[in-house]
């Protein structure tokens, strides 16, 4: 392949990638709502499902629990690394790195805070959330 052809292919790939990421949400003035729950894979994850995006996108945030310490009292006002599953459409989803900063966290009731997503094209998306705890069986067992 010639260099010119390789450049054209690279530019076409960049353009296609930019188009697919163009449907990202904008920052919201009010917090997104949703639910928070424990999920057993195993191991145990804290899962936050966020809804309320303008185009019906969905965002799931996952945090791998470290030996149960996080469940009782995660750090407030400090960034925590999460994994995110961002879906622009039902069958168009991406796994992204994310950061969550909790303002409030109560394992029995819910949580609030901010999130930041890091997209492959270098853009960051920020927003805030306020979620309620989804009812689950007690005690929560993960085997």
Characteristic terms for this protein:
7 strands, seven-stranded mixed barrel, 143 residues, 2 helices, alpha+beta
Notes on the structure:
With 143 residues, the chain is an alpha+beta fold. The protein has one domain (26-133). It is built from two helices and seven strands, in the order αβββαββββ. The chain has helices at 3-20, 69-72, and strands spanning 32-40, 44-51, 58-64, 79-89, 92-106, 110-118, 124-133. Strands 1-2-3-4-5-6-7 form a seven-stranded mixed β-barrel. The longest helix has 18 residues, at 3-20. The radius of gyration is 18 Å and the shape is globular.
Short description:
The protein has 143 residues and is an alpha+beta fold. The protein is built from two helices and seven strands, in the order αβββαββββ. Helices cover 15% and strands 48% of the residues.
Strand proportion, as a percent range, falls in over 45%
Number of helices, where a helix is a run of at least 4 consecutive DSSP H or I residues: 2
Question: Portion of residues in helices?
Answer: 10-25%
Chain-averaged pLDDT: 79
Q: How many β strands by DSSP?
A: 7
- What is the approximate shape? globular
Give the ordered list of helices and strands.
HEEEHEEEE
Instruction: Tell me the strand order in the biggest sheet.
Output: 1-2-3-4-5-6-7
First and last CA, distance: 53 Å
- Domain count: 1
């Amino acid at each position: 392949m010639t260099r010119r052809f390789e450049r054209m292919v690279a530019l076409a790939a960049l353009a296609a990638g930019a188009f697919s990421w163009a449907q990202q949400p904008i920052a919201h003035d009010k917090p997104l709502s949703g639910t928070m729950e424990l999920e057993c894979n195993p191991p145990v994850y804290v899962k936050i499902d966020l809804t309320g995006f303008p185009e019906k996108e969905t965002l799931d945030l996952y945090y791998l629990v470290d030996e149960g310490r996080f469940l009782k009292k995660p750090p407030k006002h400090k960034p925590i690394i999460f994994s995110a599953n961002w879906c622009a459409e039902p069958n168009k989803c991406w796994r992204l790195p994310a950061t969550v900063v909790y303002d409030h966290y109560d394992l029995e009731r819910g949580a609030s805070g901010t999130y930041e997503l890091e997209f492959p094209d270098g853009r960051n998306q920020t927003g805030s959330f306020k979620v309620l705890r989804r009812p689950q069986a007690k005690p929560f067992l993960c085997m």
